Amino acid sequence: MADQAAERQNLGLLCFYPHRALESRLLAALVAAGYDDITTAQGRIAARIGPGGTRLTALAEQALVTKQTAGHLVDQLEKAGYVRRVPDPTDARARLVQMAGRGLEVVAVARRVEAEVEAEWTAHLGEEATAQLRAALERLREITDPYR
Amino acid sequence: MADQAAERQNLGLLCFYPHRALESRLLAALVAAGYDDITTAQGRIAARIGPGGTRLTALAEQALVTKQTAGHLVDQLEKAGYVRRVPDPTDARARLVQMAGRGLEVVAVARRVEAEVEAEWTAHLGEEATAQLRAALERLREITDPYR
DNA sequence: CCATTCCGTCAGAGAATCTGACCATCGTCA
DNA sequence: TGACGATGGTCAGATTCTCTGACGGAATGG
Judged by CB atoms within 8 Å, which residues 22-51 of A form the interface with B? Predict the structure, then answer.
């Protein structure tokens, strides 16, 4: 596992930095905008709540955590007024986690930061290389996302 | 932050899956090989220990955690016989974390799995696309790794 | 109609992470 | 040569994150 030195790094490890960089930028921007009570793990869940709402089990799958962890994090987001839980009209067992009140404000900040970061990265890589990167990562997801 | 639906996903998020996929494969392989007491976070530190040893502060920077967290994880790895701490001959304050005993065995398993995973990904993407992905991620690291 | 699966919560335990403080050492500068 | 700021690492405590197992209710398929 120790191959950090001169040897070239594996692709999975190389993916670590952009992923973390975006998360850090997002959290920093949210703190700067006054939303200083969202943690990294909560953000990772909140980032996967789609328009209309998303089920807890889906959030857990996409964030690669257990239902218990996702539930706990949604509890906290709900308590802080970012999300709400509503019944899923298509399945009485299920509930949809939706962005609420403050969460909608957060979405706007997050989208702006994501756009900024992606513009920076595109400027650094070039349009073509960025398109190729995206295509490769999307194709890679076909075999790396266990829930797709 | 909630843009998971039909909208295309940002690059940072797309990087999440390969990174996690590799970590999961590594841990599963280690468990299968009998090293079932290494946690994900410990693995993330151990993966950055270079030949000759690496300082705690460097491990913390690369793994994007605090010195305290890195120290705690190294404590555990040391206690389990995977690493050892030795004085850094160039700085009396510093110590080098080196792979020890069981850790060297773990390295061999890890390298094999990393090679397997990368071969699978290359087979899925194609040689050229993989080379482009690597080049793009390495260039991206120039602006996403805060400690380089 | 029944067995199986799914959905989400509950309880508890352990892992991971952080801040602030502290001490020893190093490098720089006057 | 000594002072000072920075660095390296540890200590203590607190909080967050994560997991397993269990459970009850709802949905699905045979």
Answer: 22-24, 26, 43, 46-51
Q: What is the CATH number of the domain that holds A104?
A: 1.10.10.10
Q: How confident is the model at residue A8 (pLDDT cuts 50, 70, 90)?
A: low
Number of domains in chain A: 1
Q: What is the CA radius of gyration of chain B?
A: 17
Contact A128/B at CB under 8 A: no
Query: A96 has which bridge partners?
Result: A55, A86
Q: Which of B2, B8, B146, B147 is nearest to A24 (CA)?
A: B146
The answer to whether residue B21 is domain-embedded is no
Q: Does a structural domain hold residue B16?
A: no
What interface predicted TM-score (ipTM) does this complex get? 0.88
According to DSSP, residue A143 is labeled H
> Cβ neighbours of residue B63 under 8 Å, at least 6 residues apart?
B44, B45, B48, B70
For residue A4, give the nearest of B15, B16, B62 by CB distance.
B62
- pLDDT tens by residue, B1-44: 444 444 567 899 899 999 999 999 999 999 999 898 999 999 99
Residue B105 lies in a domain: yes
